[in-house]
Amino acid sequence: MTPRILRHLARLDPVLGGVIRAAGNRRFVIEPECEPFQTLAQAIAHQQLNGTAANTILGRLIASCGCGTFPTPHQVLAAPEVQLRQAGFSRAKTAALKDLAAKALGGAVPHRRALETLDDEAIIAQLTQVRGVGRWTVEMLLIFQLGRPDVLPVDDFGVRAGFRAAYGLRELPHPKVLAAFGERWKPYRSTAAWYLWRALELERSGGLPEPAERVRLPRLRVRRRRPAKTAKAGAGASSARPRRSGARTRARRPPAAPPRAPASRR
Predict the structure, then answer these.
(1) pLDDT of residue 224
(2) Is residue 123 located within the same domain as residue 195?
(3) CATH number at residue 44
(4) How far is CA 15 from CA 54, 165, 186, in A?
(5) I need a labelling partner for 25 at 20 to 30 A (CA). Which of 39, 73, 75, 90 fits?
(6) Hey, what's the torsion of the CAs at 204, 205, 207, 209, to 10 degrees?
C-alpha cells in the first residue's frame, strides 16, 4: 500500500489510522497469476477443511487427473466421479467441481484476461453461477488474484472480528452495518479490509491500540410485515366465521316472546 493511500484512510477514519500505525506499512501479497478455473477449484477443495487437508486433496487431484499439473476443465469433466471421491472430494464438492468444469468449457467461467475487463459486481454475478461458489469466494479472488482495490468482504469472519476489536465493540457488526460504515473507505476498501485482518492479529498479540474515538454505527432498518388486509363483507368473501368440517350444528332456538304487559288496574 502506498503511503498516500494510508494517509488518506487515516484522515478519514482515526480508529483505522491507529491500526495502520500499529501494523505498519505492509503489502498484502497478490498471488501468482492463474486461471479462474484453478482458483475456484482450489477454493472448493478448501471449503470446511484446514489448509493441510485441502492441499493433500489437491495433490491427489493433480496426480490422478492432471498427470503432474493442475487438471484442465476437460480432464475434470472426463474423470469418473469415483476417481474424484477417491482423491478426497465429498459428494457435494465433486458435484461443484464438475459444474465448475462444465461452466468453464461453456464460457460462464471465462479466462483471466476476459475477466479483467469486467467490473467487480459483474465478476461476482458471473462466477457465483457455479455450484458451491459464493460471494465470499469471488471476493477473495478479486482481492488476492486480480488486485482489485475497492472490495470489502463484509461476510468474512476475520474482517468482522477485526472491526469489533479495532472499534472496541462487544459484538460482531452485522454485515449490512459494516457495509454501510465502510462507505467512508472508498475507493480503498480492500486496504481497509487488510488492516482489519491485522487488527485481529494485533489484539491476540496485545499490540492493538485503544480506539481513537467512539464511533456510532448505522442503525439496521428492519422492515416489519404489515398485517394482511381482511376482505370486506359483501366483496365476494363471506365475513362469517368458517365452520369446521364435520362439526355438529345446533338448531337455533326461536327468540323468546316478549313478556306481556300487566293489565292496567281500573
Answers:
(1) 58
(2) no
(3) 1.10.340.30
(4) 36, 11, 16
(5) 39
(6) 10
Distance CA 102, CA 66 (A): 17
* Span 96-121, pLDDT tens digits: 999 999 999 999 999 999 999 999 99
Residues 137, 44 share a domain: yes
- What residues does 233 pair with on adjacent strands? 237
Q: How far apart are CA 168 and CA 116, in angstroms?
A: 38
pLDDT tens digits along 204-250: 999 999 987 787 787 766 555 666 565 554 444 444 444 444 444 44
Active-site positions read 156
Range of the domain at 200: 3-29+150-205
In this predicted structure, what is the pLDDT of residue 262? 45
Residue 219 belongs to a domain: no
Q: How many domains does the chain have?
A: 2
Q: Exposed, middle or buried: residue 157 (CB in 10 Å: 0-12, 13-18, 19+)?
A: exposed
Model confidence at 76, in pLDDT bands (50, 70, 90)?
Answer: very high
This prediction's pTM: 0.78
